[in-house]
Amino acid sequence: MEAEELAREFVNIVKSASKAYVLTGAGVSTPSGIPDFRGKDGIYKKIPPDIFDIEKFYADPKRYYSFHKERLSLMKKAEPNVVHETIAKMEEKGLIEAVITQNIDGLHQKAGSKKVFELHGTITQYICTKCGKIYDSEEIDPRLEEEEIPHCDECGGLLKPNVVFFGEPLPEKTLLESFRIAEEADLAIAIGTSLVVYPAALIPRRTVETGGRLVIITIGPTGLDDLAYRKYDVELGEFFECVMRALEGE
């Protein structure tokens, strides 16, 4: 099938669902210039994974922040791509209930998505590790040009990006709400994720276990291919340009 035909088929599947949601991974943001973690040009090819270990962060925050400043400039320059925009359009049209994302870049919201559950936190905030005060990134990011390590204005505690490091639990409320959506939905749409990171990969699995269908859109194998009702092994940018045209041509 041609890309346009596949896109129309996908849109028809989504329209046939009574309640659908999207789960996104790093592959959704790579067209925006944000590298993924495990791909051939991924972050882990350049830096050790323990840069995101919470104990290592506390032991040597300066080491983490030297990496963070470089990555931050990439994320701040990034703009939503056609995948983010199409997902936002699907929500606007009432075709999906929510976006559950493993990404921390805030691009779904920037594209116009309203109901976004960030499983791994967000780079758009910082949190004080001592008193828990939340800061907007627009307040803290400029300080990083002068400060090697940012500290809380209230208590002097160490600030960290409000993202989930290895060794930290996922935000409980976000996780519980994501599973509630998964259990009530009859269609899960996984985009740009290998579905091997847990507990995120359990979310679409829960939809299948409760009688729903799973559609996977990504290049290469995933951990849940055997459960998929339909798998689109396609380049995301081209495919979602076709999906956007199909939605706009209604």
Q: Which short descriptors sum up this protein?
A:
alpha/beta, Rossmann fold, 6-stranded parallel β-sheet, SIR2/SIRT2 'Small Domain', 16% strand
Q: Can you characterise this structure?
A:
- By secondary structure, this protein is α/β, with parallel strands linked by helices.
- It is 36% helix and 16% strand.
- It folds into 2 domains: 1-34 and 79-120 and 170-250, TPP-binding domain (Rossmann fold, 3-Layer(aba) Sandwich); 35-77 and 121-163, 2-Layer Sandwich (SIR2/SIRT2 'Small Domain').
- The protein has 9 helices and 9 strands.
- The strands form 2 sheets. The protein has a 6-stranded parallel β-sheet, covered by helices on one side.
- The radius of gyration is 19 Å and the shape is elongated.
Brief summary:
By secondary structure, the protein is of the alpha/beta class.
Tell me about the biggest sheet? 6 strands, parallel
Q: What class do helices, strands and sheet pairing give? A: alpha/beta
Task: Write down the CATH class of the largest domain.
Answer: Alpha Beta
Specify the helix fraction band: 25-40%
Radius of gyration: 19 Å
Poorly predicted runs: none
pLDDT average, as an integer? 92
CATH architecture grouping of the largest domain: 3-Layer(aba) Sandwich
- Report strand order across the widest sheet: 3-2-1-7-8-9
CATH H level, superfamily name of the largest domain = TPP-binding domain
Number of strands: 9
Number of helices: 9
Residue fraction in strands: 15-25%
Mass-distribution shape: elongated
How far is the first residue's CA from the last residue's CA?
21 Å
